[in-house]
Design brief:
Length: 294
């Protein structure tokens, strides 16, 4: 409370919320202006409080009341909504270069909040009425795992919010997947050979969970099916128009976060042979059988 007036006079003040008994006090105005601090307003409701002050000089003359009003606010500000999203096409993942966005809305006007995303302090910008926004681009030095965020704020009266922590279902993955094993087999009983109508089977296992891979066998796009933990299988039945020789195959794959694995484009050990052998020459030797009579 700040008072100005004739130095040496006695001041009397009353602070009221219109509901409870007012807070009163008095003293000597030994300076002008005079600041009266440490007023205990705990007995008054939050909201508008009215102040009335009179001054009395040594002769007993009383001034007319000086009045003012202010707002009391001891309520802790809160976040009424909060969210974190990723720019990755898969909303559950993030990779290097993806943008993480933190959005929140406060229950009342506040001073500029503070925030972190995945442990990094970030700037906070106005995003609407009592709404705020922060962003961070994931880098190769960030630790893999669940992305996190934190924020807090102080209202215009100095009341500090709790520290809000967010753990959205977003996983940061910066590691490119690899293929651990790749094998090609044939239904032909001749070992590493295949002929028309034989089935070629391509089995491969990835180092981690991947999106549905794109696979070709002998130049034909085929469907790969998940047959076990990170294990895939694709097949192709050889046809008469397929090219003879070592059967080629390709595998293109990526992790759910969008990290691409190293594509495979090579020949298998299985050789396709659709040509029947030719008989070069057949010779029937002339022979005679002599029969004797007894």
């Amino acid at each position: 409370l700040t008072l100005s007036g004739e130095i040496g006079t006695t001041y009397n003040y009353s602070i009221s919320d219109g509901v409870h008994a007012p807070l009163t006090g008095s003293g000597i105005l030994n300076s002008s202006p005079k600041n009266i601090s440490a007023l205990d307003l705990s007995g008054l409701n939050d909201g508008t409080v009215n102040v009335s002050v009179t001054l009395t000089d040594a002769a007993g003359n009383v001034s007319s009341a000086g009045t003012s009003s202010s707002t009391k606010d001891t309520s802790i500000p809160t976040a009424v909504s909060q969210s974190m999203t990723t720019s990755n096409i898969n909303s559950l993942f993030a990779k290097v270069g993806n943008l993480i966005t933190l959005l929140f809305q406060t229950s009342e006007p506040v001073q500029t909040p503070t925030a972190t995303i995945h442990g990094h302090p970030v700037s906070v910008f106005v995003n609407g009425v009592n709404s705020w926004k922060s962003t961070y681009v994931m880098t190769g030095v960030d630790s893999e795992g669940q992305i996190s965020g934190q924020f807090s704020f102080t209202d215009l009266f100095g009341n500090l919010s709790t520290n809000y922590a967010l753990f959205p279902n977003i996983t940061f993955d910066k590691t490119n997947p690899t293929l651990l094993t790749t094998t090609v087999s044939t239904s032909n009983f001749g070992g590493n050979f295949a002929t028309t109508s034989d089935t070629i089977t391509l089995d491969f296992t990835s180092s981690e969970q991947i999106q549905n891979p794109t696979v070709t066998i002998a130049g034909h796009t085929v469907t790969a099916s998940l047959v076990g933990l990170n294990s895939w299988r694709a097949t192709w039945n050889m046809i008469g128009t397929d090219v003879e020789g070592l059967i080629p195959y390709t595998i293109n794959f990526g992790y759910q976060a969008g990290n691409l694995g190293t594509s495979v484009n090579t020949n298998s050990v299985v050789k396709f042979d659709k040509t029947a052998p030719n008989i070069a020459n057949i010779t029937l030797s002339d022979w005679r059988m002599n029969v004797g009579y007894v």
